[in-house]
Design goal:
Layout lengths: L7 H8 L20 H14 L15 H13 L2 H15 L7 E11 L7 E2 L7 E10 L4 E8 L4 H10 L17 E4 L6 H9 L3 E4 L11 H14 L3 H4 E2 L4 H18 L2
Parallel strand pairs: 1-5, 1-7, 5-6
Antiparallel strand pairs: 1-3, 2-3, 3-4
Helix pairs in contact: 2-3, 4-9
């Protein structure tokens, strides 16, 4: 049988982070609020399948696509997905499943139909509008941070932003962890000033250098981030960007990141 879109264990974690529903008026209370678990199921269905909001089947009992979209925006603005990511990372850290000895950074292009914010001409897609997903993953592929930029943003330019996006990871005694000991990257990150910036953050940068023969053997450490992007873009809503607003796209991105983290528990 197919796995449920929203397992009980994941819903239990999310439910604790959702803002309380607004109290209803005694007079003219309006429509009854939707079951928030069903709403999140509808959001995950759109994320998994990539269908349009208006095509969300009413038979699922999730309400209309427009209402699910409003819930996704409201919960993202309330910081639900960011706090869920921190919670899952803390549980993984407590279970000793995060390897801080090394991490890998990379990016992946996605075409943006109709453009939108945080989009630009893609250098690998004949100048069509697109975006880039940037990610830092640890040794096993657990995503520590993900961000979105325009497709024409150089990887090295986005490096400090995605590294600084790693949240403080709790779950054990002592100070929260935020930095891996070593960070691996391809030739797109070849920049001595950015190597120095990583060292100031306490990270040993292991970036391949341009104009050197291939066979640096750094690929044996970078493959987890490539696998992560395969997992990420299995969510069809992220494989082809159709959201004009980068807030909505980033909400889907963070939610997908949380689902991937949950799969490691």
């Amino acid at each position: 049988m197919a796995k449920p879109l929203l397992p009980d264990e994941l819903w239990t974690k999310v439910a604790r982070l959702l803002p309380p529903p607004k109290p209803r008026r005694d007079i003219y209370p309006g429509r009854k609020p939707l079951d928030r678990r069903k709403v999140l199921t509808g959001i995950l269905f759109v994320l998994r399948t990539g269908i349009r909001w208006n095509d969300l089947p009413r038979e699922m009992g999730c309400g209309s696509g427009s209402r699910c979209r409003r819930y996704l925006r409201a919960w993202d603005r309330a910081g639900v997905w960011d706090r869920l990511h921190e919670l899952l990372l803390a549980e993984l850290h407590e279970a000793d499943k995060i390897d801080w000895s090394r991490a890998a950074v990379d990016s992946a292009h996605v075409r943006a139909l109709g453009g939108g914010t945080s989009t630009g001409p893609s250098p690998v897609d004949r100048g069509r509008p697109g975006s880039k997903h940037h990610a830092v993953v640890e040794r096993h592929g657990i995503p520590l941070a993900t961000t979105t930029t325009a497709a024409n943003t150089p990887d090295v330019t986005a490096l400090p932003r995605v590294v600084d996006a790693v949240p403080p990871v709790r779950g054990r005694r002592g100070r929260p962890r935020r930095r891996p000991k070593r960070l691996y990257g391809d030739r797109g990150y070849d920049s001595d000033p950015h190597r120095a910036a990583m060292r100031r953050r306490g990270i040993d940068p292991q970036f391949a250098r341009r104009r050197t023969p291939h066979g640096s053997r750094l690929g044996v450490f970078r493959w987890p981030v490539e696998r992560f992007f395969a997992w990420l873009h299995a969510f069809r809503r992220l494989r082809l960007r159709t959201d004009w607003d980068d807030l909505m796209h980033d909400a889907f991105l963070t939610l997908a990141t949380c689902v991937i983290c949950f799969n490691f528990l």
